[in-house]
Amino acid sequence: MWVKSRIPRAAAAAAAGAVLTAGLYVAPAAAGTHGSFIGRFGETTAIASTVPANGDINPYGVAVVQQSQGSLHEGDVLVSNFNDAGNVQGTGKTIVQVAPDGTVSQFAHISPSGLPGACPGGIGLTTALVILNGGWVIVGSLPTSHKGTVFTGSGCLLVLNSEGKVVETFFGHGINGPWDMTAAQAGPFADLFVTNVLNGTVAAAGQVVHRGTVLRLTLGTFGDAPPRLLTTTRIGSGFAERTDPAALVIGPTGVGLGTGGTLYVADTLASRIAAIPGAVTRPDSAGRGTTVSTGHALNGPLGLAIAPGGDVLTVNSGDGFIVETTPSGQQVATHLLDSSGSPPGAGALFGLAVAPHGAGVYYVDDATNTLNLLH
């Protein structure tokens, strides 16, 4: 459970002259601005359970398959699980594949034994989940032991082929608790943008430290060989992070690459969206980046995605809302996705992705262990 203060949304909406109906808040459009992306949607549908045969729960990462290859089918959605059947965080080992009609299959079950490379500490799949051209699936691992009370290592990024087999691991090079990730690809080269949340958090024993990072890993994909790590650059640093008895760890989470090469980061503890300019080419760290938007409807943002048109979509850890923010920082719409728990919706939402053709937003709900669609 995530415990955070609630936002008085009805009062805020009324003060702004906005409309609040059926959980959907749409800010009045400023002169010359476009309408909101999520403002056109009014329904949420549970597509399928994300619990595989071994009982793994707590779905985190979401990635839409863009092209069929191997076991991957265009339009399906991959979901990574962070908890095992006993609800122990940092021990989930499965990725499920969900078709738009609700058909579910297990894409991968990753065992810590027999890996083709090191993954310090073991396996506990996070929100960091992307699919590269050629059907390469990359997922983050932040492992624990002793019923989720001990971090066992820095984790890694696991590279799977299109049949769900781990063929490579990326570890070290600043990778330390990979929490979320996005990717950009041009020809044979790909950039992974990875947030990391274990830099000094364990030693701080629950106190906030400002050591969260964003790494850019540049990969080469040549022929049928697995992607090869070419360079690693720290492009963001100093983000707030801490361990948490309920949420395990809190730190910079969702990332999304916008127009002009700006990387947007969900700075969870600060309840803000940060921007790192020139993320694809910059040779050094932008620190905590510039603040795009903070507070108001943002309430511990976790997952992040870029909407068609360039707006930033985030889901809150402090309540059950999705928030749409323009690159200029205007929060233009929210929608209630989950109202369970206490406080309502807290800790239920993590990964999200825009559905093909902009038909909606896929998101996972940890309270129900389901993949859902806002449409």
Structure summarized in a few sentences:
This protein is mainly beta. 3% of the residues lie in helices and 46% in strands.
Total number of domains: 2
Shape: globular
Q: Based on the structure given, which CATH architecture of the largest domain is correct?
A: 6 Propeller
Query: Low-confidence stretches at least 5 residues in length (pLDDT < 50)?
Result: 1-33
CATH class of the largest domain: Mainly Beta
The residue-averaged pLDDT reads 91
Tell me the total number of β-strands: 29
Separation of the first and last Cα atoms: 27 Å
Helix content: under 10%
What CATH calls the topology of the largest domain is Neuraminidase
Classify the beta-strand content into a percent band: over 45%
Query: Total number of helical segments?
Result: 2
Class per helix and strand makeup = mainly beta
The main sheet comes to:
6 strands, antiparallel
Radius of gyration: 19 Å
**Strand arrangement across the biggest beta sheet:** 1-2-26-25-24-23
